[in-house]
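Milestone M4 deliverable, item 7.
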Amino acid sequence: MYVERPSRLPGAVVWSRTVEDPAVGPVRPVLPDGCMDLLWNEGRLLVAGPDTRAYIPQAEPAHWAGVRFYPGTAPTFLGVPAHELRDRRVDLTDLWPAATVRRLHARLATAPDPATALEDLALERAAHAPPPDPLLRHLVAALDTGRPVAATADELGLGARQLHRRSLTAFGYGPKTLARVLRLQRALALARAGVSFAETAARSGYADQAHLARDVRELAGKPLGELLGRAG
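Output delivered:
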């Protein structure tokens, strides 16, 4: 079971999930979404870096809690460039001092609600960190509407190399990959709402339904119909 709610940290989401019993049903893949997460799992504090492909969680039953940061903001709060964590799940002890992480472990282990405790931690980090670059939020907003990368870079007053460098630090990959990931999420939202695959492709910015199918398979590892449990 998965539940989420908006966080008190702007743009973030607080979530919890109990991994499905493999005997009951398959474990759902975590799909690329442009975000990074701070995680608590069975006594472990971890960071989920930005994904460029589907991630399959461990199959055995387990409880997870997390804070999913708005795209591009996690490196400021966590103190690590996103590209160093691309397609990785790492223990927080690999990023922060061991003594600090031990104190946080003790705090999370005794918290009545680990998800809220993680949110409190994220808010504390945000209060002592410089604010995320507002230009990056504008970049996400523009690309999420389907604006071309080159036109968006011009509107933001950035050259291609500068935009790519800043995107690597903030998102873990270049702006073209970010645009592709955001387009995938737009398509999934439409398809889950019952929109036909052909119309989903047109409204999401794909050249055609075949283009949508290729992109979903490459990024999600499965055909769209299989992801959603229905036919186009």
